[in-house]
Amino acid sequence: MKRFFAFLLVLCLLGFAGACSSDPAGSDGGSVVLSASPAGLEFFADSDVQSLEVKSTASKWMIAAADAWCQTDVSSGSGDRSVRVSVAANTSGAPRSTQLTLSAEGAEPVVVSVVQSDMAAEQLAVDPEPWDGRKRADITYQILIYAFADSDGDGVGDFRGIADKLDYLDAMGVGALWLSPAHPAASYHGYDVEDYEALDPRFGTEADFKALIDAAHARGIRIYMDYVINHTGKQHPWFLDAVRNPDSPCRDYYVFSDNPRQDIRDGKIPTIASEGAAGYDAGQWFTAVCGGDATPNVKFTLDWNRKTVTVEQVGAVENSGTPSSGKYLFLGDPGRCVEFYDAGSGLYTLSLAFDSSWGFLIRTSATAWTAGTKFGAAAGSNTIAWGEPMTLVANTASADPADVLMPYMSSVMYHSHFWTSWFADLNYGPADACAESPAFKAVCKSAAKWIGLGIDGLRLDGAKHVYHNAYSDENPRFWKAFYDEVNARYRTLHPDGDIYMVGEMYDSHDRVAPYYLGLPAFFEFDYWWRLRDALNTSTGCYFARDILSYRELYAKVRPDFIEATKLSNHDEDRALSELKGSVAKAKLAGAVLLTSCGSPYVYQGEELGFVGTKESGDEYVRHPMKWGDTHTPEPVDAAKVFAGMKAVADVAAQEADAESILHVYRTFGALRNTYPALAMGAMTEHLVYNADNTQYRQIAAWYRTEGDQRMLVLHNFSSSSVSLPLTDAVDKAVATLNSVSGSFGDASSVRLGGYASVVLLLK
User: Fold this and answer.
1) Is residue 344 in some structural domain?
2) How many domains are contained in the chain?
């Protein structure tokens, strides 16, 4: 008690000093304004970050901390801005204080008090049962293969790198790995698959992949492949064959149309039948060149005296003469404009590899489309014969020349749900007959190969983007057919179990619920969105009731549903960034994830406190792992590395720091694997600390029960400490986060510091 009052006295004295010195300089008539708000910062014993608002009219100001345990993200600045103030965990055994000094030329210094409490001497003792190493909890770790661990120093993560780091994953209690797409692809992320039965050579060989599977299984860790079957990349052999040969069997693999708007209206496109013309209007159709074995090298000869153009096929691309100053070939689809070569006597030549699907136009300006500058085919005669001159007409008041097309260039449009030309949607036909479609049979056959190699499950991308109407029953029916077929193949090798499949349905829980008709598991985006908002508003009392209501809804569709809970993932801003940079909130979010219902997923780097926002690219939230050794991969795009990642400690540093975020994930991961009630037990609301109790709005509380084992979980979603009387008979505490004290007996109670947690084993 004496220590407590001493701490209050320190707070009062420093707060008074800070308040006195934070008046804007120049308030008595001076010209320089300098202030900081709040006048004092109060931290709990755990490491944390808070914001200090600086206002200044000075051209430059400086800020410095008096002690090393308190740091600012900048040492100087100008104008108004937020300064992040961070403190290390206080394990000294006593409260401590320091000062931040804000200074600028022409202004009185501003002193901001910083006070941090200590880990109370009465810190509640914990006595968990030792984890025996069994993977009771269903904890899955999401891995970006290219960005996880590099075994050979080429800058790219690989299968051997993952195998090298299995001990790290094992220490967190991880029971499964979700690997991002491992198939060949043109993109860095792999979601434009070019071969379902091959592996990206950057990641290693099939033997390397098999060795990873076997090594993971030896540790009780399952392997889930990311399987993208709503579309392929445009370089997939199926697609290339389909567009080159109109009679190819692969034509039926994709959604093609010469006239999408009309075909949708006429009901000729089963995957878009329920959307109508909106699918076309949404800009999700792209043009492909059809016919011919390959895009040929061609030679254009322009006779400017006769206004004709002749096109011939050539071997190597060669040009002769000198560039013209005013004749240009404008290629429609890539939007390229290239200058003709002047061969003399009114003739101009140009050789190039022609890759446009929209034809070409000739113009006399590199930029303008004014009357008389654009030349093309006359209306109704826009197809050129090889080696025969075509007469060109100029755009005038009475003529608008058409694109010039070559014989092999009959164009067709293909559909992409993702608004990008380098994805092409697969066509599974009507939902009630999808299993009979060639594309369905092909992707199931390919899945069987990886099942035979030893994988345990599939993560299915974009579950609502197979059939165009995301909220009809078409997509769930498709996924049920897919699950039944692939599971039947799986059970030929594993007669006693079912394959694991989890779908990505990026939507609210009420939209997700109908999809459980098709698959046993779905990612729970609403879980994270609700947790984020509760932590940022200090309203934990509603959290348990809300997430339990989601489960009630899912159970009506599928009683044996698997709710894949998560914080952020590769398509979202990082959790720590969403929590306003508060390390204390990020630690608590990890503890909540690993003590609540569902099958939790941990996104690579979440356990290290990775930061990042999507801004103008996904790369900002897909930073490579920071190992502190040679296994750290290189960023895909160094220009898209979130600046805040520089301050994130690597694995080696966090393993040596008992107060790190990594240790929170390891502690609660081991705890979840130790106690069946946490791993698989039912979750129920606390009878007192819930949405009906306005006195303790910051508290999130629930029970976990499995058989005779019953546990009470308490989380404080605010920065203020709170004391809670307990009516349950407590056996012991098995885990705490941050400052927790209490006593158990006839009048049990517990005090939770800011963003603190306790897990109690009940009698």
Assistant:
1) yes
2) 3
